[in-house]
Amino acid sequence: MTLTGQASELAARLLRMGFSAQQQGQLAQARHLYLQVLGLDPRNFDALQLLGLCCLQSGELQSARQYLDRALSLRQDVATVFNHRGVVLRRLGEFAAAQDDFSRVIAIGARPAEGHYNRANTLRDMGRLGEALNDYRRATELEPSRPEFLNNLGACLKDLEFHDEALRCYERLIALTPGNAEAHSNRGLVLQKLGRLDEALASEDRALALAPDHAAAWSNRGGILLALARPADALASLDKALALEPQQPDVLAQRGMTLTELGRAAEAEQDFETALRLKPGLSKARLALGKLAAEQGRFSEAESLLLAVHQAEPRNVTCLYWLADVRKYEAGDPLFASFETLLEDGTLSNDERATLHHGYAKVLNDVGRADGAMDHFARSKALRPATFDLGRHRASYAALQQAFTRQFFAERGSLGSGDDRPVFIIGMPRSGTTLTEQILAAHPEAMGLGELQDMPRVSRLLEGGLGNIDRFLAACTSLDSGRAAELAASYSAAFAGCDPAIRRLVDKRPHNFELLGLIALLFPRAHVIHCRRDPMDTCISMYMQDFSEGHGYNRDLATLGHYYRCYADLMAHWEAVLPLPIHPFVYEDTVADLEGSARALVEFVGLGWDARCLAFHDQEHQVRTPSQWQVRQPVYRSSVERWRRYEKHLGPLKEALGIG
Q1: 451-460: buried (b, 16+ CB within 10 Å) or exposed (e) per residue?
Q2: What are the strands of the beta sheet with 446-448, ordered from one edge?
Q3: What is the chain's mean pLDDT, rounded?
Q4: Do residues 157 and 163 touch, judged by C-beta distance below 8 A?
Q5: What is the maximum span of the chain, computed from C-alpha positions, in angstroms?
Q6: How far apart are CA 487 and CA 482, in angstroms?
């Protein structure tokens, strides 16, 4: 159809009016004007492409596709039309067709950066991260200052575990857009992956200072706080995230995990079940329910839950890892084949592979394949980030020993609370702290509270705690009776709701050995039990645990041995200077004479003997500790001198411990 001059002029004017309305966000008006143009000229290319974009902007994807298809039937040399149709196809889930359109954008050459960026997004949707990364890099080379290009490049690098490069990418983005809250939040996630948890927390806090209603930053912050062993603070952050965006299944699952750490199992279970109602395929919620069942001693139920996930998702590394931990395995179990098959998968991330190696090492160890177990433990550790600074650690302990002397405590004898209920079980992890707690918790006048994080929290109220050792020690030195009473009351808040008839409340956080100086100031009538076990057995047992980044000292045997010596030196110092009595609870002695050790333990904390303390493994307590099933067993002698099974692998540990 040939337009008359007057009709042509009208169409041009309507087109200009539509374009102006579209620029101002008046999409309905723009669409009405473009349709008038097409009424005059059905083959008007500009009206078709702009109407397609208008429909895309208003979310009418099928209409957008139809108009863009008509435009492309007229001309195929305009990159923006291919770009817009590619965006439509991607949103419709037609990834291969979208990829073709973005490739045409690149080939035309008018907007190559946009083409590379959008093709990268599509490839990422398809799970082809390596190809996506190449396109993101090319897009940022062409246009280095586009914030969205840098943001998605960083996300892809993070997904591929190129964390150092991802961090540099987000820092470039922050330099360009300092007020970009999302960039600060994503930087926090990368720092968490690198094990730099304090910096990660600061980055999330910066994001929230810029955007207090950024729900994802509150959620990310909760995950970091949980990794920092601050579950109460983590819960507050997750609650804030859910208040901003309720009914988020992933956040609910994270909240359930946090409640589990706080010992609030019934609430945790509710969160997991709600998350599953909202997102039935959310495997991490079902896995967490399985883990929770294991912690409560319901091992058959736990195994059933985990096996159901494993059957549905045989590549789920976390599920396989937890299955390894719920019971002791025997040769020929099908789980071996599952591990071996998945270990051959070249697409696993380093974190997944590390988890898988550790789980496989555990089941190999169950069947006595010591060499294979040690090989896989070593492979697992090599894939974890090593962030522990032994030199800084030694300096921190030396500062503690220099500051906390007999004279220091003698000059402050009037400080602290008169509460004699707290019992602190301290020592190295895997030295028998859980066994000790279980014996005491079986007594009707005692209650085991697990590994409370309240003493580290209280220590951080003194200039940041051990992470800022000089200021912490200065704050301890200047502590007066009023402030000491406040801090003691802050710790004792953990006992709120406990039965008043309970005379002893047991905190079994092993690393409270670092804070015994502060504990002696705040609770001069507390009871301290020092769990000791053969250094070689302690260290090899620790090495076989998949501890969090906060226990980075167990990433290799030599560092672990040096860490043990630092602990032993500090404990020798405490035993020499503390005004508190410290009761030694020796693992080997307990194995040889359970009743004798248990009676001495109960007597030390000032309780009368109760025979139920010998049947601790029959009591119903939640147990959040590695290898939960072991805690439900009676004391067994096979754990004494266990290290000899692995002796040929332990040269670096022996040397570090000074054992000939």
Answers
A1: bbbbbbbbbb
A2: 446-448, 504-507, 422-427, 527-532, 582-586
A3: 91
A4: yes
A5: 109
A6: 9
Closest among 79, 83, 72, 85 to 45, alpha carbons compared: 72
Residue 305 confidence (pLDDT): 87
109: alpha, beta or left? (left if phi > 0; alpha if psi -120 to 50)? left
CATH 3.40.50.12780 fits 5-245, yes or no: no
Query: pTM of the full predicted structure?
Result: 0.69
- Is the confidence at residue 327, as pLDDT, over 90? no
Q: Which of 450, 498, 436, 446 is nearest to 610 (CA)?
A: 446
Question: Torsions phi, psi of 113, nearest 5?
Answer: -60, -45
Map tokens 């439900």 to a residue.
632
Q: Is 70 exceeded by the pLDDT of residue 623?
A: no
Question: In which residue are the tokens 């090593």 written?
Answer: 386
* Structure-token pair, residue 35: 């349709």
Closest listed residue to residue 176, CA positions, set 140, 204, 208: 140
The phi-psi region of residue 180 (left if phi > 0; otherwise alpha if psi is between -120 and 50; otherwise beta) is: beta
Instruction: DSSP letter for 582, please.
Output: E
Domain parsing of the chain, residue ranges: 5-245, 334-382, 391-657
- Residue linked to tokens 């009538």: 525
Q: Which of 495, 622, 650 is nearest to 564 (CA)?
A: 650
Amino acid at 108: I
**φ, ψ dihedrals at 62, nearest 5°:** -65, -40
Q: What is the pLDDT of residues 355-397, one digit of tens each?
A: 999 999 999 999 999 999 999 999 999 998 777 899 999 999 9
Contacts 24+ apart (CB under 8 A), 219-222: 219/248, 219/250, 219/251, 219/254, 220/185, 220/188, 220/189, 220/192, 221/188, 222/251, 222/254, 222/255, 222/258
Do 39 and 14 touch, CB atoms closer than 8 A? Answer: no
What is the dotted CATH code of the domain comprising 391-657? 3.40.50.300
116-120 long-range contacts, Cβ below 8 Å, gap at least 24? 116/142, 117/146, 117/148, 117/149, 117/152, 118/83, 118/86, 118/87, 118/90, 119/86, 120/152, 120/156
Tokens (6 digits) for 482: 């009023």
Rounded CA-CA distance 543/642 in Å is 13
Q: Is the pLDDT of residue 632 over 50?
A: no
Q: For residues 348 and 317, is the Cβ–Cβ distance under 8 A? A: yes
Answer yes or no: are the C-beta atoms of 290 and 265 closer than 8 Å.
no
Q: How far apart are CA 623 and CA 631, in angstroms?
A: 8
Average pLDDT over residues 482-511: 93
- Give Cβ neighbours of residue 94 (< 8 Å, ≥ 6 apart): none
Report d(CA 435, CA 487) in Å as an integer. 29
Instruction: Please tell me whether residue 127 adopts helix, strand or coil conformation.
Output: coil
pLDDT of 3: 66
Residue 634 is given by DSSP the state: P
Nearest to 195 by CA among 168, 218, 228: 228
| Among 474, 580, 561, residue whose Cα is nearest residue 517 | 580
Q: Count, in order, helices (H) and strands (E) of the chain.
A: 35, 5
What the block records as the tokens of 562 is 């040096």
Residue identified by tokens 């041009």 is: 12
Amino acid at position 573, single letter: H
Give pLDDT, residue 439.
95
